[in-house]
Amino acid sequence: MKRNFLLALLFVNGVTLFAQNKDEQFFKQIYSSSLTNSKCYSWLDHLSNKIGSRLSGSNGAQKAVEYTKSQMETLGFDKVYLQEVMVPHWVRGEKETAYIHDNKTKTVVPICALGGSIATSKNGLEAEVIEVHSLAELKDLGTDKVKGKIVFYNRPMNPDNIDTFDSYFKAGDQRRSGAKEAAKYGAVGTIVRSLNLRLDDFPHAGGQNYGDLPKDQYIPAAAISTNGAELLSKSLKKNPNLKFYFKQSCQTLPDVLSYNVVGEIKGTEHPEKIMVVGGHLDSWDLADGSHDDGAGVVQSMEVMNIFKNLNYKPKNTLRVVLFMNEENGGKGGAKYEELSKQNGENHIFALESDSGGFTPRGFSFEANDVNFKKIQAYKNLFEPYLIHSFTIGEGGSDIEHLTSKTIVKAGLKPDPQRYFDYHHAANDKFDAIDKRELELGAATMTALIYMIDQNGIE
Q: In order of start, what are the domains of the chain with their CATH numbers?
């Protein structure tokens, strides 16, 4: 009996070792393919430099749909198709202008209208300024001190966090809801410190919304560069009665028809089980969105290119999904889930890349304890590639809509220290992308999808 047990143990250990060696070898092939034979950098070059910004409803967004669909049709999918989705169509109009009006001195500062904001009057808006550092502080001030003024939200991102995304989300309420809350107390406009950890002259765009506020109470909202915010704050300390002027001509047009771009290859063993990898195709309009989220788009496409180069046929159905309208509405992710429900689809895994094209460090997972423990066992395969962070967290804003009965969601986690230098700003351009970092991210995504495909979820 003891001899039979030992033989069985040796057999199990041998099978485990063989599987690990097989996975190690395939990982090497994945990374080699991505670093020597990838297309993602050239795809991003075209998206960024030939098409440019891709805000929902724009000509750039439509051109990006057409281009990525044509490129995906060369990758060996069983089918490539478009999913119709109605998206918001907000346009910036003329370049914004702003200055600090202190006695007879006018000091120009960089601003940009926040997405979804209304315009000022044609002559612009000038008023005294009240500086606050939180929505709670605004509430404490009340109508008497806020009415008729421009509210200046000046809470910086917390520099103490190694995870800069945590700082971003905690500071983001003043951008997302600042105008809505200020309008309740009679403010005539809002200026928000850009969500950026360094001091520079780039105002950072981003979405804001008025919630259920009546339209006749909407007030214009803009972001000011971090250098501009520092200057305005110092100027207010010297002269609390100074005025701020800004002019913007943005407007919201009727929703327009756009598309998610989907490439699908049927699973060889479990075609009814679906794995998704994707990023969002739209970007803000100040630049070409190379990090946010051109990088995620081309990395997701590269997953299929790597599998094609290695002649790997997934056991489960694999979909590459390029979502439209993540930035100012989330309509693409919601539409994908709506159609998935209508078709009774079963998603077992979804991976999103929407944190820039920097060096990959790991993944954040939305998973139950059993599946997270199972995935943690793969970590030793990733560590030789300096992928060391497997944490519980969020997968991504587009895949958050997916609601299959049992699903694991993951988000690629690149090194986060430089991302917010570029996020939503005019310097988020192709020259901010490092080719090798981009390719390492694509390989890391492919490796995780391979492991999920081989081993499934519980």
A: 27-88+254-455 (3.40.630.10), 93-249 (3.50.30.30)
Strand partners, 452: none
Give strand pairing partners of 351.
Answer: 277, 410
Kindly indicate the confidence band of residue 8, based on its pLDDT and cuts at 50, 70 and 90. Answer: low
Q: Distance between alpha carbon 341 and the CA centroid of its chain, in Å?
A: 24
- Report the candidate in 121, 90, 87, 97 with the shortest Cα–Cα distance to residue 326: 87
Report the DSSP beta bridge partners of residue 14: none
Provide the token pair at 415: 């090194």
Q: Which helix or strand (DSSP H or E) is residue 223 part of?
A: strand 221-224
Q: For tokens 């724009």, name the residue.
A: 58
Give phi and psi for 179, each to the nearest 5: -65, -45
Q: Give the CB-side neighbour count of residue 84, counting CA atoms within 13 A.
A: 3
Please give the share of the chain, as a percent, with pLDDT higher than 70. 96
> How far apart, in whole angstroms, are the C-alpha atoms of residue 91 and residue 52?
15
Q: Tokens 């060889």 identify what position? A: 268
What's the pLDDT score for residue 104?
86
Q: Which of 131, 302, 326, 337 is catalytic?
A: 326
Single out the residue of 30, 27, 26, 66 nearest to residue 324, CA to CA: 66
Round the average pLDDT of the chain to a whole number and report it: 96
pTM for the predicted model, two decimal places: 0.94
326 is catalytic: yes
